[in-house]
Amino acid sequence: MVSADSELSKTRAVPLIFANPACVHHLSPVHLAYFETAPEKAPAIRSAMRILKGMKYFLVTYGCQMNQSDAERIAAVLEELGFEKTENEAEANILGVVACSVRQTSINRVYGRIVAWNERRDRERVITFVSGCILDRDRKKFAKLYDLRFSIEELPQLPGLLATYGVPFVPRHSLASDNERTDYWKIAPLCGSEVQAWIPIQNGCNRFCAYCAVPYTRGREVSRDAREILDEISRLLEQGYRRFTLLGQNVNSYGRDREGSLPVFARLLDDAADIIEKSGREALIHFTSPHPSDMSRDVFEVMRARRAVARQVHLPLQSGDDAVLSRMRRSYTLSRYREIIGWIRELVPEASLFTDIIVGFPGESEAEFENTRLAMEEFQFDMAFVAMYSPRPGTAGSKMKDDVPQAEKNRRLHVLADLLKETAGRRKAGMVGRIERVLVDGIVSPGVYSARTGGLIPVHIADPSAGLAAGMFVDTEITAASPMSLAGRLV
Ligand code: SF4
After folding, report:
1. pLDDT per residue over 341-363, tens digit each?
2. Phi-psi label, residue 260: left if phi above 0, alpha if psi -120 to 50, beta otherwise
3. How far apart are CA 82 and CA 97, in angstroms?
4. How far apart, in whole angstroms, are the C-alpha atoms of residue 344 and residue 194?
5. Do residues 153 and 200 lie in contact, with contact meaning Cβ atoms separated by under 8 Å?
6. Which of 120, 268, 386, 426 is the most buried (most CB within 10 A)?
């Protein structure tokens, strides 16, 4: 059952009857299963099913990998109901958005979409829905704008909600269990890539960093059952996926909410690597994003011991100044961060290092910013995602004076971007001449391939005679480098 304060809602209960006179039977596994279990109701359902032929859905996703992962499960539910995916929103019967309230620019786009969709809905029969990371303030406004809105935990109930709009639906088997918040993880995702699989291992966050909306949009941390995670990796490995990314807002605090019943993060990483290595297949496991305060040395010991764990660490720094870190409520200091980098350089010196940095957090002085610049110089990141601070409603940061002028935030961002070009460029230049084993992501054009090293550095391979395919691992000699990517030739 949906709890009383559930955000699941249907705000426009206007029955929407799909009508397509030219259609014939179109039965999805959901409906076929129904005929097996309830044959007496088959005629009514068969009649309803006729109308689904050729119905399409359009789904747009904003935000991080976790939202992409959620979108893959939403797509799986819609396709199981019999809808086909379309990239052309003009021909879609169901229009959905996975929203991100973490950045104002993303949420503005969500509002922009629904204005256009509602104009269309005034003329045609379409259903709109919104899911994803949504702040309370936006949630209330969306209730008036979208037909349906649901949190990702409520995804198993989407077919029932669509049924009230005339979309035929018959439950194949109930997903309801003792823990509804984790049922959606049982839905097999429809991966958006042939090679990369996002594996959510946890949802929500307990940390309440001052600038971040995630604890308000996704709630407190809930860890997924370890067996379910490992089974999903096993199944996707069989299906041909070769890069697995364990996802969590605070990925390395995995298991703490189920203490005693689950292994901690390093153990989970080890078990996942074990599955891959014992399968005899080549594949890599990444994870994102860890919190420095929850990081332990054993994670890098597993990375060193296991060839299936990719040599890549994304460790958000956010600021190189202790006073700013404290105002951000990040609960670590620069010296703690330095200690973790020390473990990485000692145990897996070949690992690439990615980070996130925010410039212009409230009160960030020139001297405090300079400490971040110095930290960036010291840690020599391979990649840094630098963002200008903007307040999100309801967070601790939003109660502070946003006093760094926009032009100054912009300047600081460019200082760090220029520095990253230098440091990352130097590190990549040092890779020229090395042999790197890379995973082919796809074919850019005939004879031209995109690939990535185990450290997630993009590698461009141009070889008309190579005959490569997505999902292949190949050895390449790195022949050229730019700050953000490499070029290689097969060896
Ligand atoms: S650790 Fe901080 S930044 Fe990361 S999701 Fe949690 S609150 Fe947000």
Report:
1. 999 999 999 999 999 999 999 99
2. left
3. 19
4. 30
5. no
6. 268
Best of 67, 202, 212 for a ligand 1 pocket test (most atoms within 8 Å of beta carbon) = 212
The SS3 assignment for 211 reads coil
What's the whole-model pTM score? 0.87
Sign of the four-CA dihedral 281, 441, 224, 169 = negative
Q: How far is the CA of 291 from the centre of ligand 1 (A)?
A: 8
CA 370/CA 415 separation, integer angstroms: 10
Cβ neighbours of 367 (radius 10 Å): 9
Q: Using an 8 Å Cβ cutoff, are 65 and 198 in contact?
A: yes
* Dihedral sign computed on CA atoms, order 22, 25, 31, 35: positive
Give the mean pLDDT of 313-328.
98
Q: Is the pLDDT of residue 28 over 50?
A: no
Q: Rounded to an integer, what distance in angstroms lies between the CA atom of residue 333 and that of residue 319?
A: 9
From the CB of residue 47, how many other CB atoms can be counted at a distance below 10 Å? 10
Please name the residue whose Cα sits nearest to atom 5 of ligand 1. 249
Q: Is 214 in the pocket of ligand 1 (CB under 6 A)?
A: yes
Domains in the chain and their CATH numbers? 9-163 (3.40.50.280), 192-429 (3.80.30.20), 435-490 (2.40.50)
Kindly state if the Cβ of 316 falls inside 6 Å of ligand 1. no
Q: Which atom of ligand 1 is nearest to the CA of 215?
A: 7
Question: By the 8 A CB rule, do 11 and 144 touch?
Answer: yes
SS3 317: coil
Torsion on CA atoms 408, 409, 410, 414, rounded to nearest 10: 100
Nearest CA among 185, 274, 195 for reference residue 232: 185
- Nearest residue to 36 via CA among 225, 229, 170: 170
**Are the C-beta atoms of residues 246 and 287 closer than 8 Å to each other?**
yes
Q: What are phi and psi of 184, to 5 degrees?
A: -60, -25
For ligand 1, whether the C-beta of 317 sits within 6 Å is no
Dihedrals φ, ψ of 277, to 5°?
Answer: -65, -35
